[in-house]
Amino acid sequence: MNAPVLNEDMRLMNGNHAVAWGVRLAVPDVAPLYPITPQTPILEKLIEFQSQGQFKAELLTPESEHSAMAGCIAASALGARVFTATSSQGLLLMHELLHYAAGARMPIVMFNVNRTPAAPWGFWPDQIDSLSQRDTGWVQLYTENPQDSLDTVIQAFRIAESAGLPVMVNHDAFYVSHSVEPVSLPSADLVQSYLPRQAREIKLDTTIGRSVGAPVDQVQWNRTRREMQIAMAGIADLTVQAGQDWAALTGRKSAPLEFYKTEGAEIVLVTMGSMTGTARDAVDRLRADGVKAGLLKLRLFRPLPLADLRAALARFGTALVLDRNYSPGTGGVLHQEIKAALFGMDDAPGLHGLLAGVGGVSVPVETLEALAREHLGAPTSPDPIWVE
Amino acid sequence: MNEQLSPLWTHLSSENRLTGTWRAALPNYQDQPSPCLGACPVNGRIATWIGQVKNGDIHGAFVTLADNNPFPAIAGRICHHPCETACNRVEHDETVGICSLERFVGDAALDQGWAFPAPEEERAQSVAIIGGGPAGLSAAYQLRRQGYAVTLFEASGQLGGLMRHGIPSYRLDRAVLDGEVNRIAAMGIDIRLNAEVMDEAALERLRAEHDAVFLATGASRPKRLPTLDYDQDWIVDSADFLAAPQDEQIARTGAHVVVIGGGSAAMDVARTCRRLGRAVTVLTLEPEGRLPAQKVELDEGAEEGIGFVSAAMLHSASFEGESVTAHCIRVEFQPGAQRGQFRADPVPGSEFTLNADTIIPAIGQDADLARWAELLDANGPVIATAPGWQTSAPGLFAGGDVASMERFVTEAVGMGKEAAHAIAGFLQTGIAAPVPEIAPQVGYDRINPAYQEDHARTHQPVADVVARLASFDEVQEPLTEAQARKEASRCFSCGTCIFCDNCYFYCPDMAITKLEDGGYSVKTDYCKGCGLCVAECPTGSIHMQEDEAR
Amino acid sequence: MEKIDYTDTGQFCSGHVACAGCAEALAMRVILNEVGTDAVGVVVPSCTAVILGGHPMSSAKIPFLHGTLESAAASAAGVKRALRAMGRDDTTVLCLAGDGGTYDIGLQSLSSAAERNEDILYVCFDNEGYMNTGGQKSSSTPKSATTGSTPLGKTTRKKNLIEILAAHRIPYIATVSPSHLNDMKAKVKKAKGMRGMKVIIVLIPCLPGWGVADNAAVKTARLAVESGVFPLIEVEDGLTYKVAQDEKKHPLDDYLAQQKRYRHLKDDDRAELQADVDASWSRLIGLAAM
User: Fold this and answer.
1) Which of A206, A208, A219, A220 best probes binding to C when mutated, by most C CB atoms within 10 angstroms?
2) Same domain? B263 vs B275
3) pTM of the predicted structure, to 2 decimals
4) pLDDT tens digit string along A251-294?
5) ipTM of this complex
6) What residue segments make up the domains of chain C, in order of their start?
7) For chain C, what is the largest distance between any 2 Cα atoms, rounded to a whole number of angstroms?
8) Which class is C23-289 in CATH?
9) Less Cβ crowding at N or C end of chain B, within 10 Å?
10) Min Cα–Cα distance to chain C from A173, Å
């Protein structure tokens, strides 16, 4: 492994600006953008970069997120590198086109700032907006802090363009989007070497004249989904590789699943997004108090890295899944997903689904610490538990 | 299909899908006769030659015209133009001025001195033609074109027949008549003027000397009103009058002339008299609006000051004191089933008188059939003929006024053409060739008016009345070339492809191919049989027909 | 007669699945040939998309993105921006949509693209209803016309898209008809030569949707133009109106009589529609005179 980069360009910035920096460095060709709280700083920063001549992408500012995604798909169909960003209602408005983008195998990168959907109106961190898009065929990654967001959005282009699938990177409203932290900026040359332009094999091309998306019969439609399955099956490895290559250049490691103090752990907290930071503190406190606790951070949600997840969880007696989302009628989406992932395992851990932080309510470290103690070795229930 | 290709991307042209299988009917390009052709006594290809005029090909128009009629300049002046009555454009606004265009072409041919070509081959067989009027000249022309030796016998000293002796020069300039007659004579026809009277013996001699004979002696015996004493010098025969030199016409007429009859001959007499300075009253059996003369003659006659007394008949006439008193009575006129037949019932108590110096009856002429009674069967007033104008004597054909009551110059020209066709068949096979059937004609419903020129008809200029009455110069003046082409552009070209490419461009399936030599073909692989090409054809020259391959 | 004069270079191929006699295919033929080879297309769900597509075949030589119904103009903008980013700004972006995708669900994205003056040539095949789904009303369906969703006749007027677009002050708006192919060709050529947003509305008498005979689409379109119900116009910069004809040559009845969708009308209804056409015509002539 190469030595970490010296003379780092460290700057204080919030999560959204870190995303904008990552996008600037990835040099997309076209960026359709529509403002929405709390995504707007991404848009504003990119436009600021452009006005300063530092960001040369075609900026398309249409009347809606729906049209922004339509523009993304069209530009991507021409072979352009495309980026957009949104949040909550905007993502939900795009829903139809999320299916289209994935079905058409357009390697679009989108950043979503997780926020509560109406009604009632709210602007708080909650992941149900993106989790409810899990069946659209997008790769979904979740980050926990501004640096993670910058690193991941750059890696997302690599994954998308390698797999021919769109990638959505998510971070939580305000906890990440608006919290200012020191961020290490990679150089433009570094990112360029990490993200070489790959010629697209098939695209809209006047010299070939092939059209995309024309009506097909049942068998051909079925084939498109089988081909997506094959592409999805390669995402975990691509994500691993993207993380390793990035680490080689920057020294910052990342993986589909990340572990913290799980050596010999009897209970593990499973998190996604900004909750991870709080959980890390809780693990530290529990360990200090002699409780064998660890942390499993799920970075890649779609496709769920099933094999790695099953192997990892088999090592623990108890797993506490922390869901900052609520799927009415079932509970936490992550809890459902992991329950399903563990299906048929003899050595599955005792699994508890905690609805922690739904709607952006605060989940202090003390609460997590107490919950871990409470559930360690406790009998499990398939039902979710609302955290007070 | 290659299973490796992504179902997201097309990779074949739709030309792999043969939509011709959807079709029930297929467009068929076939020119069809126009109604003017059907109505034309010579079945002239009017739509074709008018199209040539439109495109500026005047010589081509002449060649097309002359195929059926060697007298375009004459017919363009005096034809009764049933073509214009039949013209589909009547449904749209007003007929195309076909006669004026025909005259334009005919005049151009005379001006340019265009001759008829020599026959492609000379044939040994010979035909005798008796009568140098329109029927005889037409037959002579058609037979000579085909290479037959033609000997033409004319009783008078000049060719032309009724065209020369019956039609005044203000309707038909003598130079035009001479030009068109001489053009036929120049084809190598043996012309015998002042020929002997053709009695039965003469006919039999000609039959022996020639392979076929065509009899076209016309109708030269004036019909007579039984109540009139034709020996009176104030009664003048119309045919004699029209054939007479001008000084004789002046000598034979007084200041006020009553002309009896409503046909073209009556109008010719009346208008000639007006040019001699006579006051003229025309007395007709037919009510106003139903006179058999052409409308243009009646209109111009009225302009020239002719008085009309219609729906009345002459009962008797007598010279009383200084003038003639014509005793007349009103009639109820009923036309009969055929041309020339009618009933006229006097209306009791409607008697009236007209004063005149001269009475000129012009009520028609009969053929003199008595001289051939032994040889030829008659059909009423005319020689009986089978189709193809074959008389009861084998090898002897008859046409024109002697064989028909269709007493128009162009009818006679048409009969001459048909007889020539029959004679040629007879000479080649021993059987008179039947007159070809004319296919059903294209109706107005087949014409797409959207593509037709919308400008109004360009009429020929007419000389003003004062000038007309001061001379025997032609009343109708010719169209200029620009006017002719503009008028020609009004023609719908019914049933005649004008190569406009509408069918090609209006095909939603790109199933029409333009052929290199003009014309079009249908790609049966793709034609869905919608019929848009037919609907958007301006001329009705395509039709849908059931696709037998299906 | 004026000969139709354009060169078919084979940009639109035989074997497409338009109904026999479809005027839309006729118009596509003119438009695709006039737009030529240096073009990328966007098409959204409509008869047009069906005519163009059917995997694995395409009836167009240029590539098309088969986008989503409400996204025609946004997709076209995306194509244009990608081309621009690649240094191919001269490539024409042709966007094809129906009236449902234009007047209704796509109006929002169309308005936005118009406001941004995106450099696209947008063609709306206006058959006055959702004909590809079997014939329901759209906001382009004229008053009194019956459709599957207005069985007694639509009670409100056709949306005036031209004036909506004119209010955006885009460089070029035109109406064209499959009965006037030279005019269509000339307007497509003119629009192609302009930069910015161009919208061409093509009236398409739908054979099954309007109840028009298989061979009568062109005739019906011609009567629409000549009766003044669909005049051929151009609007430049949203201000300068030009009308191709001086007068209405036919009463509206001649046009209505071609179509079953107006068969239920009584004399009073027809008179009311005629009055509407007369009023619109006067207004248009007034705009053209300004």
Assistant:
1) A206
2) yes
3) 0.91
4) 999 999 999 999 999 999 999 999 999 999 999 999 999 999 99
5) 0.96
6) 23-289
7) 59
8) alpha beta
9) N
10) 28
